[in-house]
Specification:
10 helices; Tetracycline Repressor, domain 2; 2 domains; mainly alpha; single chain; 60% helix
Length: 236
């Protein structure tokens, strides 16, 4: 969720989250990302709760409606974006900071709540977090431009959209849906390589044309990652 958001009327301040509530929030966020990848905006709260291991009764004691749940999860996602951006700004190397920010957001699954966009109201807290995130990203991009590390034609919105696209991985979604935990590390490694490829495309070049991109991380994916997905449960 990026760009200027128009808030709905302000909500009452939320009480501090307890450790158990925080664990449940993390589980719900991960479950919501997975279920939304499968079912889109029509994702069932009951399915999300079951996948997260959270009782539906306890979930509705905390969130009165499906919209309230998704608003909270959207806010958590925005807060992660901002924390990752602040950590990136603490890095004295502008390119390393920006690359680390992109990688952190992609691996977190930033953008996977996209299917609920336009279906829920935007709270004041969501709008404020989104505006702060936009500002932080602008600074990250400007720093990288100023040092000549980032291509001058790459904008903050380009980076934001890249994160959203890479944060939603059809390959990872399929492997999880099939329950193929044995393929999950390979799928995650393959996505890390795609992130590195994308970052290399953002990197500026020296005046003599030398490539500044870092080496690709890890080994190339093997064909097993693709062929094994076609094996039906119980076969092979």
């Amino acid at each position: 969720m990026r760009g200027t958001l128009r808030p709905v009327p302000p909500d009452a301040p939320a009480p501090p989250r307890r450790p158990r509530a925080e664990r449940n929030d993390r589980a719900l966020l991960q479950a919501a990302r997975e279920v939304l990848a499968e079912d889109g905006a029509h994702a069932s709260v009951a399915v999300i709760a079951a996948r997260a291991g959270v009782g539906i009764g306890s979930l509705y004691r905390r969130y009165r409606t499906k919209e309230e749940l998704f608003q909270h999860l959207a806010l958590l996602s925005l807060e992660h974006w901002n924390e990752a951006a602040e950590q990136a700004l603490d890095d004295d190397d502008p390119w390393r900071g920006l690359a680390g920010f992109v990688t952190s957001c992609v691996e977190f699954g930033q953008g996977t709540l996209g299917p609920v966009a336009g279906t829920i109201g935007v709270t004041d807290a969501m709008a404020a977090a989104s505006a702060r995130g936009d500002g932080l990203l602008e600074v990250l991009v400007a720093r990288a431009h100023d040092t000549g590390a980032l291509r001058q034609d790459v904008t903050a919105l380009d980076v934001s959209l890249l994160i959203e696209q890479l944060g939603r991985s059809p390959l990872l979604d399929q492997v999880r849906r099939q329950g193929r935990g044995d393929l999950l590390p390979a799928a995650q490694a393959a996505r890390r390589r795609l992130v590195a490829i994308a970052l290399a495309g953002l990197r500026a070049r020296t005046p003599d044309g030398s490539d500044l991109a870092e080496p690709m991380p890890g080994d190339p994916p093997t064909s097993a990652l693709f062929t094994e997905r076609w094996v039906r449960a119980g076969e092979g």
